[in-house]
Design a protein that fits this description.
about 230 residues; single chain
Amino acid sequence: MRIDRNVAVIVCAGPSLERLSALGWAEIGKAGAVVGVNGAPAAEACERHAVEFTMLSAMDIGSGLFESVPRLASLWRSTRAWRVTSVDCASAEADFYIHEVHEADGVCGWSDHPAQGYKGGSSGMVIGNWVGNPWPGDSPSNRPPRGFRKLAYIGLDMHPNDGAHASGSGFHVSGFARSAAQFEQVRAGWGRFCAEAARRGVEIVNLTPLTGLDTMPRASVPDEWVLAS
């Protein structure tokens, strides 16, 4: 997938962020939207390369995310990007509050409602679903772009038993790594999310080098995007 204004790049907080080169980050910056998920905007790699985010997405503010990622709280207060969180965190300052939905709500893989996002075990799915749906006609004129037909993920490492984050992105362990059963649940959720997106004409690809997620379409990035080990 070529990164251009028709693509939304969703930046997750996996350790692979540290392996992206300056050229890689520059290419990511050509996207129509760059969306930081949870602790990713606080990653040292993002700070070092002055990544400009269009949106910051954090569904877990009400579950101690600011305590797990200390720098994120100040970024959340000072950013010029749109801030998106869950309606379950209605007391938090944000620009939009997403309704997280899943199978118990009659939603399997993707919601077509513009205020919802599919909760399949990852905040990356919630915001990807929301960004992939267009704004309703009565939305304010200063809104960031949505309705992308192409979504590219980076920093989505997701290796079993390894829930670590990029430096600066938090000391907590990602939920998928808490048990083998949890990993399989989230893995399956990504599969449903991508399949339902494809049915709607939304192309999703994981650009994360050496990702452990095998239920999601993958593509290799140019060698120049990745730092030598």
